[in-house]
Amino acid sequence: MTLHELKQDMEGCARCSHCKWVPHLQIKSWRYAKVCPSVDRYHFHSYSGGGKMNMANSYVDGRSELSDTVAQVVYRCQLCGACQVSCQCYRDDIDLADVLLAFRSTCVEQGYVLPEHLEMIESMKREDNTLYMKKADRGKWADGLDLIDINTARAETLFHAGCRYSYDEDLRDIVRSTAMLFRSSGVRLGIAGKDEACCGGRAYEIGYQGEMKNYAEDMASRVKASGAQVLVTPCSDCYYAFKYLYPKNGLDLGIKVLHATEYADQLIKEGRLKPRTEIPITVTYHDPCHLGRRGEFYKGGWQGDNKLMRPSRLKQTGKLGIFDPPRDILTSIPGIELREMERIREYSWCCGAGGGVLEAEPEFAAWTALERLEEAAATGAQALVTACPWCERVFKDTVKEKGLSLKVLDVMELLVQSLNGGRHAGF
Ligand code: SF4
Ligand code: SF4
Question: Stretch 322-342: mean pLDDT, rounded?
């Protein structure tokens, strides 16, 4: 949707500032009551979700123009969706997240593109990934695993690693052991290897909305060729693209999509995976935004001219994201004690990496991550556990830079360890 088409949403903003805070009934302490990293870091109202709506409305009305300063405010935002959840508690006729995306698209159309984002788009166009790496190296993460190559044989489940897991060597054990875990449960798991490409979600988020269509079509042809009935990804950003962005833009993959934690949780509940070995550790779970509130499946459009009349089943409240499967996996592992942070589920604080912030504003990403690490440490947990390679990257880097003692782990790492007699998988 264009900014002009979202005029009613923008005009509906009451400037109440609820989008800066965890919804009031969910606040547990003053220390962890804020929810928008952008306005908490940069302070001016314009940085909040509502502030960006007001700026967009002013631009559409011709009362202001785009500038480098406006673009800086627009892109100092992780698109974490926390403002949308808080706003919808009070105003369910406003789709704030749609305005943030459309505002970025307008910035790109008008030539206000950040150089780091331009570099990323060029990498996507040239090498099909967001990390400036070579396409030919994409399948190297799976070397020696003997997984089915969907270019030559059919599979039951298609495993899509995503850009970060395909290239980030520091996270390689996680993606390798996740794939092997599924294979050891008897699943005929296939990968596209070097022919896998980016989901295109990051291009859409930074304002190149049209680019995503090419990636979606590419993905659909791979899905069809694989013969798979299920598409599994360990990446929360890819999950968000497949479950929300694709259907919102009329792009249908024609396959059931699951996040790796949903799939593993299902296998545990069916008795195909049995975590038996005790892992004595106290952990806290961080909900990745794009798996949690932003991972809520697309509920369908509304054609009416008054959103107040929109049926509640079509509202993107964030409540139906993936919150329970990762927690159920953790609590199924003997010895693990799960302690919750104050801001959890759809009210979580972001890791800092999303929406192109890690690439363009790394200092802001690290600042946001540190706030979450402090919240995690306050639970007394020994480790922050999550389910997204982008969260893991920024948390691990921040822990190292600040010399913190908190461990950063992936849910699947702990599951594999419990299934593997307490040893790290070492695939
Ligand atoms: S976006 Fe929503 S919550 Fe934020 S100021 Fe406007 S109406 Fe209030
Ligand atoms: S998406 Fe997140 S960072 Fe951006 S304005 Fe909303 S709450 Fe703030």
Answer: 98
Instruction: Report the helix count and the strand count for the chain, using DSSP H and E.
Output: 19, 9
- Could you give the 3-state DSSP secondary structure of residue 80? coil
Q: Are residues 158 and 235 in the same domain?
A: yes
- Encode pLDDT of 32-44 as tens digits: 999 999 999 999 9
pLDDT in tens, 76-87: 999 999 999 999
Q: Are residues 243 and 282 in the same domain?
A: no
In a domain, 156, yes or no: yes
- Cα–Cα distances in angstroms (integers) from residue 303 to residues 72, 85, 255, 309, 310, in the given order: 33, 22, 26, 10, 9
Identify the three-state secondary structure at position 77. coil
Q: How far is the CA of 356 from the centre of ligand 1 (A)?
A: 23
Say what the pLDDT of residue 427 is. 47
Residues having CB within 6 Å of any atom of ligand 2: 36-38, 48-49, 52, 77-83, 100
Same domain, 123 and 80: no
Same domain, 283 and 427: yes
Whether residues 154 and 260 share a domain: the answer is yes
Average pLDDT, integer, range 163-188: 95
Same domain membership, residue 254 and residue 348: no
Residue nearest atom 2 in ligand 1 by C-alpha distance: 87
The pLDDT value recorded for residue 307 is: 86
Work out the pLDDT band at 424, boundaries 50, 70, 90. low
Q: Domain check: are 125 and 99 in the same one?
A: no
Does some domain include residue 343? yes
Q: Which atom of ligand 2 approaches the CA of 350 most closely? A: 2
Question: pTM to 2 decimals?
Answer: 0.96
Considering its fold, how many domains does the chain have in total? 3
Q: How far apart are CA 328 and CA 269, in angstroms?
A: 10
Q: Rounded to an integer, what distance in angstroms lies between the CA atom of residue 36 and that of residue 357? A: 14
pLDDT of residue 361: 97
